[in-house]
Amino acid sequence: MKNKYGQLSTLVYETDKPVGVSFGDVEYYLERLRDVNGPILEPGVGNGRFLIPLLRANKTVVGYDASPHMLEVARLALQEHQLQAELVQSDFASYQSEPRFDAIVIPAGTFQLIDSFETACTVLSNFYQQLNVGGRLMLDLDAAQAIFTSQPSLRKWQVGEHSMVTLASTPLSMDYANQRSTELHRYELWENGQLQRTELEEFVLRWWSPSEISMALKLAGFVNVVVSGGYEYGRAPQSSDELISVEGTKN
To answer: Pairing state of beta strands 40-43 and 101-106?
Structure first.
């Protein structure tokens, strides 16, 4: 199953990217959202890494995620920080809402988990419908070279005094025609040197050029589309940028 974020991948995500970790995105989007007072939607809310800072900034947030394991961690984070948010289990294509949001924000390249161009365009149209007039969509994407250079790797995380999780990543295919990369992720839980559990997951990402994502937002109806490099709003992306951020407004 692709991009499922099962129990072990969720454990790795929470260990590697807990609440409080920023890649520059938390500060960037909090600044971009400074004047937003209405509800905010965070698709692919994950473990709450970005959700908690939003709530601490006194924003009203609805989040959804397809992984029940991720949502469980996010709910525990809300309890720990004594905060409240509406969390829903849903994938990108299935989530439905009447216009109610003043912003939709998708950090950390999560939008690239939608591996079909057609599905992505449908989701962008849904986002447009879910925004109030004047509402903004904000998302970021890994630069294509980060996907092109994918190599086999092995990583490990200590998750207890005598426990660790390993992740072996093996590139399976690079579909240049459909701008899609596929890796096999093998997660293994070890206790006292003994293998306790294994999870296999196909991890699929789609890459976008700056001009293509700009065109897709405009086709969905967004105006004032701005594509920026390196979390510097308004600066055109450069080849050295590891990510690009995109913003559009509902007219």
So the answer is: parallel
